[in-house]
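Slides due. Your pick:
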Amino acid sequence: MAGQMTGQLLLDRLEKQYRRELASGAVKKLRPLLVDKNLRTNVAGLPALVMCSNDYQGLAANEEVVAAATTALRQFGVGTASARFVCGTTHAHALLEESLVRYLGVEAAITFSSAWAANVGLYSALTEPGDVIFSDRLNHASIIDGCRMTARGVVREVYPHKDLNRLRDLLHNHSSRSGKIIVTDGVFSMEGDLAPLQELVGLAREYDALLIVDDSHGLGVIGRTGRGTAEYFDALNEVGVYVGTLGKTLGGGAGGFVAGPRAVVGAVTKRARPYIFSNPIPPAVAAAASKALEIIDREPGRISELAAKTAAFRSALREAGLRVDRYHANRTIAGR
């Protein structure tokens, strides 16, 4: 029939599904903020207190961070309009990656358009058929998708959440393989508990596996100076590779990164498809993240202040009769 949209059977199915979800209240409604993103805002004309943000240090609206982004915006424009290896690398990107190297004490770092893109590109860049990846069952969805997108022939072993005995068994079963990766969240995003990092370091060393830690929820939040889960467990020099986000503590903008040995970053820049075939973060976002990292580094008291505020809020919730420590999550804010 002339004028009829193609794929009508599929569209009809999706329309029925949408109507069912709409009727059941399952369709997510977006509520635009009407004033600047800060602790207090305005949603749909009503004043609101923001208690659900990932802007853990409140740097998204920090004057220094906004000023750094504004300067970069005027200097470099809105975006790169190019992939990194063509003409999409600005001075702002280089400075951010240098800052991450210094902050984490690694050899190299590379940024992505998101931490999701970093995880999706990382594992396929590092592995080849015959290698094996050991992943915690409660790892972030981006880690799961990244592991799934590796080449055919890469073995993917999922162990029960923080079950070190099962992980050891799996490592033993694959001990003859040369390429082995253990990947874990530092702070698990849904439960708020910490990875048993010291034990994972021990297993990685025993079985010659590369340990990758996604510390998107730990960086700038825990550890004596905010260097995340590895610092909390006194294992800063033991983690092989870090993955992190710029969309939470580091200014709340967008973007992610991989940091670690030069060989790892080199493999990522050569083979990670989300890096090669996508524009990078805008220069203004890179400059904002650099400034946020600088602030956290020079003001380590922010870490203990955040821990104190969180402890006070938890105490108030307990006094109100609410259970907040299902997985002893209070340890995630107890910096060392």
Remarks:
- The mean pLDDT is 91.
